[in-house]
Amino acid sequence: MIDYEKMTAYAAIHSLVHENQYDYSVNELETDEYGRVLFSVAVTSLYSNANFGSYVVIMQGCTKGGVLYYEDIAYYSGDENEEKTASLKDANDWNTPINESKITKRRMHMEYPPGEGMYFGSTLTETGRSRPKKEWNDYIKIVYSSLNISKDDYEIVISDYDESGKWLLCVREGGTNNTKYFVIASERKVLSFIENDDSDAIISDIISMKQESNWNFTLLKK
Q1: Strand residue runs (E) in the chain
Q2: Which of 6, 22, 114, 184 could form a disulfide with 213 if both were Cys (CB 3.0 to 4.6 A apart)?
Q3: Distance from CA of residue 138 to its chain's centroid?
Q4: C-alpha Rg value of the chain to the nearest Å
């Protein structure tokens, strides 16, 4: 059975990253008459009792091997909140006909064992396209230099990508799960970055950053 809710959470939530480290506990809360699913998800470590956060998410739908959602506005952070849920539903067109022009699709696969790994791309070839072609250590040197930070203090992981060769990166403080910066970079340079303030406003900041960096939404559509 394919866990589409888990896939949606992994793909849609920016601070969850491309690693085999998460366990997702999903609680389906509600569905609308057009097939959308509202669910909560608690994210914990596969290897310890560490809590990586809780979220409320809306999945617009799914296809074989892929999930459909509204990019950047499919979730909010924290436990269930009536006011936030109402706003989330409104932003995601709850109980109105599906608007396919607003939907983003991610093809993904899940891998067992060694853990509950989830990867962009339904095949190894497609997964490879979601990473820079450049040798990874050479690639992240560009980011460290642009942000004037040290690789001894921070680690860099992929959050998302577009199909024109740009990546949304999380820059995390070493030894923690705390994202300090969100960065958009091409193969050659950092295009834009923002400091994470762990507030609800970070979503609008990421949207603005994507627009400034000419993030390619079109090729990710259904």
Answers
A1: 22-31, 37-45, 51-59, 61-63, 66-69, 75-77, 104-111, 117-120, 154-162, 166-173, 179-185, 190-195
A2: 184
A3: 24
A4: 17
Distance of CA 59 to the CA centre of its chain: 13
Q: Three-state SS for 10?
A: helix
Does residue 79 contact residue 54 with C-beta atoms inside 8 Å?
yes
* Residue 164 structure tokens: 């024109």
Provide the sign of the torsion angle of the four alpha carbons 150, 147, 165, 3, taken in this order. Answer: positive
Is the pLDDT assigned to residue 192 strictly greater than 60? yes
Residue type, 157: V
Task: Output the pTM of the full model.
Answer: 0.87
Q: Sign of the C-alpha dihedral, residues 16, 200, 154, 136? A: positive
Sign of CA dihedral 131, 145, 71, 52: positive
Residues 179, 212, 68: CA angle, nearest 5 degrees: 65
C-beta separation of 163 from 214 below 8 A: no
Cα(187)–Cα(10) distance, integer angstroms: 24
